[in-house]
Design a protein that fits this description.
The structure is a homodimer. Chain A is an alpha/beta fold. Chain A contains 14 helices and 17 strands. The two termini of chain A are 31 Å apart. Chains A and B meet through helix 7, strand 11, helix 11 and strand 17 of A and helix 7, strand 11, helix 12 and strand 17 of B.
Amino acid sequence: MKKNIIVGQSGGPTAVINASLYGVIKAGLERPEEIGSVYGMVNGIEGFMQDRYMNLSAKLNEEELEILKQTPAAYLGSCRYKLPEDLSDPFYPVIFQKLEQLQIGYFFYIGGNDSMDTVSKLSRYAAANGSEIRFIGIPKTIDNDLIHTDHTPGYGSAAKYVAATVREIALDASVYQQKAVTIVELMGRHAGWLTAASVLARKEVGDNPLLVYLPEADFDLEQFALDVKAALDQQPNVVVCVSEGISDKDGTFICEYGSAAQTDSFGHKMLTGSGKVLEAFIRNRYGVKVRSVELNVSQRCSGMVVSMTDIEEAAEAGRAGVAAALKGSTGQMIAFRRKDGETYELECVTEDVNLICNQEKKFPTEWITKNGTDIGPEFWDYALPLIRGEAKRKMKDGLPVYLYRK
Amino acid sequence: MKKNIIVGQSGGPTAVINASLYGVIKAGLERPEEIGSVYGMVNGIEGFMQDRYMNLSAKLNEEELEILKQTPAAYLGSCRYKLPEDLSDPFYPVIFQKLEQLQIGYFFYIGGNDSMDTVSKLSRYAAANGSEIRFIGIPKTIDNDLIHTDHTPGYGSAAKYVAATVREIALDASVYQQKAVTIVELMGRHAGWLTAASVLARKEVGDNPLLVYLPEADFDLEQFALDVKAALDQQPNVVVCVSEGISDKDGTFICEYGSAAQTDSFGHKMLTGSGKVLEAFIRNRYGVKVRSVELNVSQRCSGMVVSMTDIEEAAEAGRAGVAAALKGSTGQMIAFRRKDGETYELECVTEDVNLICNQEKKFPTEWITKNGTDIGPEFWDYALPLIRGEAKRKMKDGLPVYLYRK
């Protein structure tokens, strides 16, 4: 008997989270004998609990789907909503009743660690309560911090944005003769994957960024001052890339030296300003011209600088999710496995979502070199294939055309 | 008798200042009967006084010239160097001797207000001292604040970057249900042209950015609070675009409420942080989620989001400069005149550089609407043609290929 699909997006936006949505919708449309409609939760599980959803398969035509595939941010809207730990909480019978009413057979949630926690809880409740609804997680995060997957959709485009933008900032910083330090602050609370991507900006060895600091290595202000001085002796224009989440050996975030930290609904520290703190520190210490640049949200939502490899892989993750669910999988996350061999090849597999949720994949400390100021060659081999390929963007009047939820 | 060309770049980088350099070099190469070599000053007039220059026509091949045309920032390097006001200063005989030694007949300086001041002084010294060297200014600034020209090369690409990026930031800001304010701070010390470009981000009337504040209108914190509240009553996600240079009715820069201001060598106030000041103000006032985003240097140095119209016009300005100089012009700046008629057409003319230097073209106050919070339709007609057209970028391994001075 035919069942319906429901799909939601959760957590922070990325450049390709809609490509995964595209993949789920396309795969659903291609299986009319098993799939009725493809519904979308508006604002994730939080919106769905308020009965906010839409029929995507009925609403979107072929052309709109192609635009959706290249639209950044989350078309369905997102949420940061943590499900109750206690599976006997009244929340669960309510949501399962809503799912049954819509004759949902397959539930897909596109997101990161916290979203996989949602998939884990719903699939465990289903198993314990005899529901046949299958729950699959589709990975998504620019932070690239999900375990049991080679990388995550969203990282390749964010890494490409960071590398291209830092290359341009280094060019900009090089136009004057006067000694100057430019500090670029990059996203990544606890994992340095995105900050590491800044080294791809180098066109050759010895290029800026000369110094790169990840959260995985303890940050020491005095050592930093020495590092910057040595770099300035090497060349007049020094570009430094730091993660928003760098902290000292006592675990105090550098940004806390300058600004009070707030906390989001998952208890994450909301970080800003490590770049500003270091800017003031170096200016006061050496009296040189110092500028700090926070790349901010464009890292995750730029649709102008995206990796076509990332878009295609994100779409494939969505398709693979539907295929896995129809084969009977539940409580699984779609993961990427890199095939051995010279050329880059990827396959989609499924991994137990319960082993993935609420875990963080750190940047390998053995890839961090030069006393915590640089990244080793292993990272180039890992990351370069992920940023390749240019999207053929639809433009109108000189601006990108995106799909908006009406 | 054959003479040589020397060309320099001065002031802040733009996405197309190298396209103007390309235009000068190409035009020089096309007139072998009149032009010997095309020299480039390294780091502008400051570097040239240190005998730092290069032979561009001998050094760059056809392929390198095409890459140069699409390379952001300043290939030759730049400077901020103010020539002595007193034309009897020993500086002048020294530099003219250097120019004569190189058999320079034609001097081109690509830059903004301050660079035109350099062209003015050198051309006046030449006239007063019987030198036949001809001095021509090629306009360049993302600020679009040069008078006697329809617009300036560099503005179109910066405006396109701002419009595209604000459109994406608005998309990113719209994914959550919770009320939130995003404040985007844009470049423009005293002229609001670039901040005005943020309204082009709207796909339809009533879209974000809902509020736009330019330096040309007095900024009032209490009125701002009321504007934001009214906007939040309209929709949950409000994007506000402000110029770095907004100031209150007493002329105090809003950023000064929060941070100390520094001064550059031209006496300009170096502004940062109006966005941060307003972020804290609104958060404290209303307790809503507020984020501020400073677009920073990518506005002027992004090569990934550029206007092909801007690139071609910048190259044409360089060519027109050479043509004007060979016809006998000196002490002139190349200016753009928009032809009347339905379709956008531009012609290059020459204007007296002495009337242009050290002047600022403000954004027309009659184009500022809704009590200083929006921009009128005249601006769309003015700006849309300037951001059209996509550059075919040369990419390698997923990253842009640029030309670097060796």
